[in-house]
Amino acid sequence: MTQAPARPRVGRRQHDREIVALAVPAFGALVAEPLFLMTDTAIVGHLGTAQLAGLGVASALLMTAVSVFVFLAYATTAAVARRVGAGDLPAAIRQGMDGIWLALLLGAGVVAVALPTAPHLVELFGTSDAAAPYAITYLRISVLGIPAMLVVLAATGLLRGLQDTKTPLYVAVIGFVANGALNAGLVYGAGLGIAGSAWGTVIAQCGMAAVYLAVVLRGARKHGASLRPDAAGIRASAQAGVPLLVRTLSLRAILMIATAVAARLGDADIAAHQIILSLWSLLAFALDAIAIAGQAIIGRYLGAGDTEGARAVCRRMVEWGIAVGVVLGALVVLARPAFLPLFTSDSAVKDAALPALVIVALSQPISGIVFVLDGVLMGAGDGPYLAWAMVLTLAVFTPVALLVPVLGGGLTALWAAMTLMMTMRMLTLWLRSRSGRWMVTGATR
């Protein structure tokens, strides 16, 4: 009688240990990634305003390109984790290699397009005549590192699928340190200016890709996995990535619409919006770390045919998402008075941001559920549903957001619309998770 209820608690503790073991290193790696851009910004900022403006334009283009291909990590994680759950490590590594080969092909395509069109891309941003040459220089050099960046995404997905989030953390930290040292040395020591910053980042990215490839090669030799490109496998990786690409583009469209609406509200509102958006993105890293754990764990359970285990760990991760969301929301409310002065001394900007931050705080538990279930369905390989759900969310959000300048309410109303968007995502994801249709078992979906 006394032992019966103890079994679920043991299972819960086991799930907790597994989630923490994967999520904490994943969080560290996620936080390390934006530090690359912060380092470049800090170093280039001392060169002059025109150079910093050029870096801003080029970085926006580069980050957009990389974010579009983030499916290389997500799709690879899910596919590899299934193979791991099925007990077939050689096939898991082979699956990851297909993703890496696809990354190289896509990276080569981006380089081929971006090099000749760099001036036109910079011009589309309305870059000033003073900043444009610096933006073009930085973009043309940095784009050479795109293949390495995409290989890092795919290889990170492979290691996550293998239930390893520590190696990506180590590589990200070492890459960040190397990037800072190279940037400082090439910009100031070698006197290369903004070109030195670009070359430093490219070298650091190539070094990170080389480390990942060395790790993958060692694992492939150990388990006898083939490393040669396989047309069918690369094609399958691309097909699995298309729905996630649609999902990502829809999400990017939502963020762009929100920024465009904020710009219509006035200078103080758009300034406050950018501050809030930066905080919202930072909070997302903590929640995304749990989602990454979900991708790896769910894929493994389904690959092993354990639907009950998948359902149990899904439920536990949702509880984690809600709890972390509540904590983050409380921190936002408590830190508001100290947070805003770090970014602005303008009272109008502060007045616009303060009530909107309350909305952001209240929405964090909803965001926790969204991120977790998003990760669960990605881990299950349920990309087509995620794509349609995000397109539907975009269709609901767009008219509501566009009505904000008409109906009034300012930035607070806009972030209420953002909360509606997250609520819509939560409902679509919750309905799917409740249906059980995502629980397709086997080494492949």
From TrEMBL:
It comes from the Bacteria. Belongs to the multi antimicrobial extrusion (MATE) (TC 2.A.66.1) family. Pfam families: MatE. It is found in: Cell membrane. PANTHER family: PROTEIN DETOXIFICATION 44, CHLOROPLASTIC (PTHR42893:SF46), PROTEIN DETOXIFICATION 44, CHLOROPLASTIC-RELATED (PTHR42893). Its main location: membrane. This is MATE family efflux transporter. Keywords: Cell membrane, Membrane, Transmembrane, Transmembrane helix, Transport. The keyword Transmembrane applies. The keyword Disulfide bond does not apply. The chain crosses the membrane at residues 20-37, 57-80, 100-118, 138-162, 169-191, 197-217, 244-263, 275-299, 320-340, 352-373, 385-407, 413-431. The lineage of its organism: Bacteria, Bacillati, Actinomycetota, Actinomycetes, Kitasatosporales. InterPro entries: DinF-like, MATE_fam, MdtK-like. It is a multi-pass membrane protein.
